[in-house]
Amino acid sequence: MSWNPKYALVLAVVGLWPFSSGIAAPPEGFASLLSDKDLDGWVVRQPDNHDWSVVDGVIDCDPHGPAKGDQNLWTKKEYGDFELLVDWRIKESPYVNRNARIILPDGSYKKDDIKELPPPRRDAMLVSPEVRADGQVTFHLRAPKADKVSVICEAVGTQAMVKDANGVWSVTVGPPPPGIYDCQFDVDGLRITDPASPNVFGNRQGSRGYVEVPGPPGHPRRDECRDVPHGTVTIHRYASKLTGARRRVHVYAPPGYPQQTSKQYPVLYLLHGSGDDDSHGTLLGRANVIADNLLADGRAVPMLIVMPDGHVADRSHEREKGSRNRGRELFEKDLLESVLPLVEANYRVLTDPQHRGIVGLSIGGGQSIGVGLGHLDQFAWVGAFSAAVSGNDPALAALRNDPAAANQKLKLLWIAVGKDDFLLARNRDFVKALDELKIRHTSQETAGTHAWGVWRGYLAEFLPLLFRQNLWSRLMISIESL
Q1: What count of other Cβ atoms lies within 10 Å of the Cβ of residue 155?
Q2: Which of 14, 189, 372, 432 has the highest count of CB atoms within 10 angstroms of its CB?
Q3: What whole-number distance in Å separates Cα of residue 451 and Cα of residue 458?
Q4: Strands 232-239 and 246-253
Q5: Structure-model confidence comparison of residues 106 and 383, the more confident one
Q6: What would the pLDDT profile of 180-189 be if each residue is shown by its tens digit?
Q7: Which domains are assigned to the chain?
Q8: What CA–CA distance (Å, rounded) separates 56 from 41?
Q9: What residue ranges in 316-427 does DSSP mark as E strands?
Q10: Biggest CA-to-CA distance, the chain
């Protein structure tokens, strides 16, 4: 407690009882925080404490006294949330004027007895989204003044929520199939992420929330963390030779990489979608978890997975200025001139095209097609998930001159898209163009939309096909994944 030292005051604090010597124990509901003799239970500046004293059972302060420095008074008792009421009385030194009463704003006189209030009740912490043992998901939102609230979840669409007497809106949905699903609330027309959920991430387009529904007991999803050996993910920062800007790249190294100092590894470059960045390959894509599980099951070749930032010209929430193809070109230059040299200088990697692959999703799928098919002398393994491509994609121009040479260099060209993906027609046009050019490829259309749950599944299918020189082994792995 402290005050303006212009006034000499006597302080009566919450729960102070008695106010003068000889008064009985405090009445019911009151706590005595002050003895009528000394400052026991209070902390004062030592050894010079004569700014503070007890006069007739009341704490007395003389802010004009000789003490310098800290003139605050502290209680030794700790409190949670509470309301502190303070009465000030003008002091007529050396005695207290008992007739100096406190006048309240309404004009009435304040009583000397002040009750110590209990701490206010804290509302129970909300758990949202709450994934139940049977796979059902319950969403909660505390919004007592809202008129209409609904949850918008990728798995179940839009579901109206019901408000209880405490102003908490709730709804239980599903159970949806195990997987990852985007979700958000609509509160009287305002779209927000779940404020109680830890599963919220940001990208160039704002914040987004999601819920993870695990697989049934004993049957974890391919992208769930299991008790298996784990690799490491390292973040590197570098100065782009193209722009001069400081940029970032995430690198996954498989289990055992630090110990096997004489072994060299193949490399897969994994590219994210529009709006995201290099962190989302592990945060949302779970690339490291998927790789760990496949390696533990003996279904993939140990490899490095390099996840660069695909947005080169624009570091804000806006898209790159100019055409999408221009953005591709800038990324291609940054990848080849800065990222590849960084990786090959810091990791034990094989640098021939037979041991280097590239794959991407959404806009990253268009980038992987452009870079991979445009540089078959550097990438023999190319993949695209829900790719931003078309039937007249610039990457096709590099193949038209000599399709036979392209087929000889390509180890794998793998394309997948969901049947409900908004890029389905464009992917079909691209695949049709490959067929016309007689470029060997594998393409599939699966259930699903333009979503992380779909892309995690594609990555779990794609990784086992990589860096296997035997075509028969790749075919067998493809059959096993069906």
Answers
A1: 19
A2: 372
A3: 11
A4: antiparallel
A5: 383
A6: 888 889 999 8
A7: 1-122 (no CATH), 130-213 (2.60.40.10), 232-480 (3.40.50.1820)
A8: 17
A9: 356-361, 381-385, 412-418
A10: 108
